[in-house]
C-alpha cells in the first residue's frame, strides 16, 4: 500500500527533510569509521603470522577481488582524465595503507591514527590566512607533545617508536591525497565502480611487497580467512560508505566527522588489542580531535557558510579546507 496523501495530525511537527538528509550521510561516515578502525585492530592481530606488508597486501588484494566481483565496473566510456583520477585515487589508497600498517606494527593504534591526522591538519594551518587557526595549531602541537611523552618526562618516547611515528605522519599526507581523489572519483564513476578500480590499483602497489615479505604464508587458510575479514571491514565497507557519504554532504562536514577517527581507533585498540590509554594519552587525542574540528569549522566560516561549503564539496575535505 502506498503512503497516505496527508500525514495524521500530531503534537510534534515532522522532522524536516533536510534533517533526515543530514542524518543519513552522518550515519554512513560513523559506520565507516567504526568498521575501518576495528578492522585495523584485527589486522594487527594478524601481523605476527603474515607481517605488516603481508597483511596490507591481503587486505587490498582480497578487497579488490570482492569489489570487482560485486561491481563489475565497465572499462569503456571514460576519458584519460577519468583514468588518471582513479589511478591517483588507487595509488593514494595503496600507499596510505602501506605506510599506516608499518606504523601500527610499531606504535599503538590510537596513537598512529592521531599522528596521521596531524599531517593534513598542519598543512591546513600553513596555507590558512586566518589567525585563529594558530590556536588549532597550538592545540595540536600540545597534543603531539603529550602523546610523545616529552612533557611528562618519560614513557611516551619509548612507547612511540620514532620510525613508527614517521610512518604515521607520512600516512597522513597520503590520507590528504586519498580524500581529494576519492571525492573526484565518486563524481566521475557511477556507484562504487571507482572504489573497485582504485582498490585494484592499490592492491597492485601493495601485493609485491607482501609477497616479498611473507611469500607462501599468505596462502594459509587461516591467514586468508582473517585477511578477508580485514578486507571487508577495513576496505570494502568503509571506502564504499565514504564515497556514498561524500556525494550527499559537504566535504568539510565529512572532514569534521572523520576527525573522530583517533577516538574510535583508541577504543578499538583498547577493546581488541588491550592497548590501555593513560589520562595523558586521552587528553592528547582529545586535543588533536578538537584542533582538527576547529580548523575545519573556521575554514567553513571564512568561505561563505554552509551553502558555499556544499558547492565546494570534493574540492577540499579536511582541516582548514585541505583534505584529510
From TrEMBL:
<protein>
    <submittedName>
        <fullName>EamA family transporter</fullName>
    </submittedName>
</protein>
<keyword id="KW-1133">Transmembrane helix</keyword>
<dbReference type="InterPro" id="IPR000620">
    <property type="entry name" value="EamA_dom"/>
</dbReference>
<comment type="similarity">
    <text>Belongs to the EamA transporter family.</text>
</comment>
<keyword id="KW-1003">Cell membrane</keyword>
<feature type="transmembrane region" description="Helical">
    <location>
        <begin position="195"/>
        <end position="212"/>
    </location>
</feature>
<feature type="transmembrane region" description="Helical">
    <location>
        <begin position="134"/>
        <end position="157"/>
    </location>
</feature>
<feature type="transmembrane region" description="Helical">
    <location>
        <begin position="163"/>
        <end position="183"/>
    </location>
</feature>
<feature type="region of interest" description="Disordered">
    <location>
        <begin position="302"/>
        <end position="324"/>
    </location>
</feature>
<feature type="transmembrane region" description="Helical">
    <location>
        <begin position="107"/>
        <end position="127"/>
    </location>
</feature>
<dbReference type="Pfam" id="PF00892">
    <property type="entry name" value="EamA"/>
</dbReference>
<feature type="domain" description="EamA">
    <location>
        <begin position="164"/>
        <end position="294"/>
    </location>
</feature>
<feature type="transmembrane region" description="Helical">
    <location>
        <begin position="83"/>
        <end position="101"/>
    </location>
</feature>
<feature type="transmembrane region" description="Helical">
    <location>
        <begin position="218"/>
        <end position="241"/>
    </location>
</feature>
<dbReference type="GO" id="GO:0005886">
    <property type="term" value="C:plasma membrane"/>
</dbReference>
<keyword id="KW-0812">Transmembrane</keyword>
<keyword id="KW-0472">Membrane</keyword>
<feature type="transmembrane region" description="Helical">
    <location>
        <begin position="253"/>
        <end position="276"/>
    </location>
</feature>
<feature type="transmembrane region" description="Helical">
    <location>
        <begin position="52"/>
        <end position="71"/>
    </location>
</feature>
<feature type="transmembrane region" description="Helical">
    <location>
        <begin position="282"/>
        <end position="300"/>
    </location>
</feature>
<dbReference type="InterPro" id="IPR051258">
    <property type="entry name" value="Diverse_Substrate_Transporter"/>
</dbReference>
<dbReference type="InterPro" id="IPR037185">
    <property type="entry name" value="EmrE-like"/>
</dbReference>
<feature type="transmembrane region" description="Helical">
    <location>
        <begin position="26"/>
        <end position="46"/>
    </location>
</feature>
Amino acid at each position: 500500500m502506498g503512503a497516505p496523501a496527508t500525514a495524521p495530525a500530531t503534537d510534534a511537527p515532522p522532522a524536516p527533510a533536510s534533517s533526515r538528509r543530514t542524518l543519513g550521510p552522518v550515519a554512513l561516515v560513523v559506520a565507516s569509521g567504526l568498521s575501518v578502525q576495528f578492522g585495523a585492530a584485527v589486522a594487527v592481530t594478524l601481523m605476527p603470522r603474515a607481517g605488516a606488508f603481508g597483511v596490507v597486501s591481503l587486505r587490498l588484494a582480497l578487497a579488490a577481488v570482492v569489489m570487482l566481483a560485486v561491481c563489475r565496473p565497465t572499462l569503456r566510456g571514460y576519458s584519460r582524465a577519468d583514468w588518471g583520477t582513479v589511478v591517483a585515487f588507487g595509488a593514494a589508497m595503496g600507499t596510505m595503507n602501506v605506510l599506516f600498517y608499518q606504523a601500527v606494527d610499531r606504535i599503538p593504534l590510537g596513537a598512529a591514527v592521531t599522528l596521521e591526522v596531524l599531517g593534513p591538519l598542519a598543512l591546513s594551518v600553513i596555507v590558512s590566512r586566518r589567525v585563529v587557526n594558530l590556536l588549532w595549531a597550538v592545540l595540536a602541537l600540545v597534543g603531539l607533545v603529550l602523546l610523545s611523552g616529552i612533557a611528562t618526562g618519560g614513557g611516551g618516547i619509548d612507547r612511540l617508536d620514532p620510525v613508527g611515528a614517521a610512518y604515521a605522519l607520512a600516512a597522513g599526507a597520503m590520507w590528504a591525497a586519498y580524500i581529494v581523489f576519492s571525492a573526484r572519483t565518486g563524481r566521475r564513476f557511477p556507484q562504487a565502480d571507482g572504489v573497485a578500480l582504485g582498490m585494484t590499483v592499490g592492491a597492485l602497489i601493495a601485493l609485491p611487497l607482501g609477497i616479498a615479505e611473507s611469500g607462501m604464508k599468505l596462502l594459509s587458510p587461516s591467514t586468508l580467512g582473517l585477511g578477508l575479514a580485514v578486507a571487508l571491514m577495513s576496505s570494502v565497507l568503509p571506502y564504499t560508505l565514504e564515497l556514498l557519504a561524500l556525494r550527499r554532504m559537504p566535504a568539510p562536514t565529512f572532514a569534521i566527522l572523520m576527525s573522530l577517527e583517533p577516538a574510535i581507533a583508541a577504543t578499538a585498540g583498547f577493546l581488541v588489542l588491550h592497548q590501555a590509554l593513560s589520562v595523558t594519552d586521552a587528553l592528547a587525542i582529545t586535543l588533536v580531535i578538537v584542533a582538527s574540528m576547529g580548523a575545519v569549522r573556521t575554514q567553513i566560516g571564512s568561505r561563505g557558510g554552509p551553502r558555499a561549503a556544499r558547492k565546494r564539496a570534493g574540492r577540499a575535505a579536511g582541516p582548514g579546507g585541505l583534505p584529510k
